[in-house]
Design a protein that fits this description.
With 643 residues, the chain is an all-beta fold. Helices cover 2% and strands 44% of the residues. The chain has 2 helices and 51 strands. Strand 50 and strand 51 form a beta hairpin. The longest helix is centred in the middle third of the chain and has 6 residues. The chain is rod-shaped and about 205 Å long. The chain starts with a strand and ends with a strand.
Amino acid sequence: MKRRYLSILLVLTMIFSVTGGFAMPAKGALMPHTATLTITPSQSEIDATTGSVDVIYTLKVTPPAGQHIGVFSFDLKAPAGMALSETDTDTKGGDGYWLNSSLSYHPTFNKTGIFETFSYTPKPNGYFIGSGTTLERNMETEADIMTIKATITDASKAGSYALAAENPNVGPDGTDTFTFTITSTPVIVKASAVTPVADEPVTATAVTVGQTLASSILSGSFKVSSTDSTAVTGTLAWTDSATVVNATGDFEWTFTPTDTTLYNVVTGTVNVVANPAALAINGGTLNQATQGVPYEYQLGTVTKGGVLPYTWSVSSGALPAGITLNSTTGYLAGTPTAAGTYSFSIMVTDSHPNSASADYTLLVNPDTTPPEFAAVPLEARDRHPGSKRVSFVPYPKDETVTAYYVIVDHDKTAPSKEQVKDGNNYGGVVVLAKGTQVEVKTNGYLINPYTELPADDTIYDTYVVIMDTAGNLSEPAKIELRTPVKLLAADYPKVGAAQAAGSKQVQILNKANGDSETVYWEGLATAYYVAVANGVDAPSAAQIKNGFDSTGGNALAAGNSLIATANTEVSALISLPADGTEYDVYVVLYKHYNSGYIIEIWSEVVKLDVKTPPAKSTVTRDPGNTGGAGASFDAATNTFSGT
């Protein structure tokens, strides 16, 4: 058992005089004398296992000088909370003993436990101190000492504990009258702090959602222990009084005893029921918006009470075009497309469900800032030879716009932004091509006008404006764009080499432009041709492609050649009806490509004047004629050749 010593912190002295009676006063008794009984705590120990405190008291009787006391008896009482030990006591320099149930015990000369030779009236209740070790048991100058152990049964109860001696008496061999002064020094026990327990359960009344915890809704009291109902004073309060209650739950309280040296601080939790506040949404005028500028507003900031989650909806009126309401988050968000003042009502519903509504006004200011180009529109030439088309890419800055354009002859008067948007002829200037492209984003948009311009390899001026969602127009941006070169290469088609006499054939040669920095070749081209009688009307490109003459009848000869590679000469042989005869050959090149739609390219129709080779010479052989030197005769054809 582990013990530790407790300090004696305070000495309280109780002095009281009690006149002792005599059982058998001696003859010739002297005047009364004063003797002293002192009761002093000499040491104290704590029992760590049981929590009790053992206190060792020293009891000492001192007679007046020269006097003696036979047997001194007295009653010994312990205060509440302390019990006297009923185990053997120890004597120090004298004969101490105690009686229990009328039995006396002396460790030296009365081991039987019965003191037969001793009697007195009145009979004391328990404790004796005698003198010497003989039957005379006289105390003279030397004091007699005995020790008593007392136990404080609950170490948690701090306080002052003193033994009390009552009913002092002198045994039968006393020789004088004594008045006893009894001095009892208390032991001061300062126990470890006690943790009090709730006397009345700690409770809290309901609160409203959003309310801050207040001490007034908290109640409860505390006592020393479950077996000790002594009230412990202190303060019961919320551990965090700044807490705002938004939902039913457990919240921590703290009880702080007034005397924290005796009692510990106690903490615990109590369930607080959070009743919802009335559901409400505050209406009014919202933050202003600007046309074409992203806008958002959180209705949750003006919605209070109720029980989460909320659901929002438009109950009347209409939001500005481009603005939507998220029913789950309560966000009004979007980009308004039209200026104006808009009135509408919003209803919010909680999970009970309860609902509330409010009216709102939202002013959308007009957007008067014109859009800007992030960069000069980029030339993106069509580059297909013979297409007579151009292309370009506008880049708006920071917003999505609609693009308008017109194409006019080079170095004509520039149009205004309104004239570009209208797309009509202006101030005597003829608009050769015009168009509109919506949803042009900041990363640009490739615009390929469908209109074929008048000439190949020619500069034209393109003017572009962009318009934002508010209808604001930028100033025109000018781009000088050149159409691609013509489909036919220079000096083509042309007549090829002369053919053999009598072959009735002519050769034509074709070549297409392409495969250069300014010309883009893709796919195949086809060279179509027809041969007609000399001097008749020219057929159209479509008639040539179909093998017809200008009347729609079949041409004398017709055909086509595929041109798979640009800048490569392609040959065609045309067989005609007669030798040595002039004919007209008409040639046209055709090509197509896909630019989101099929683009067809026709070269100009080119006329070639051709003449078939002469007929072969024929000679009938005289049987006697060998043809002469250097001549040869073909018997199969019956002709000579050579010289």
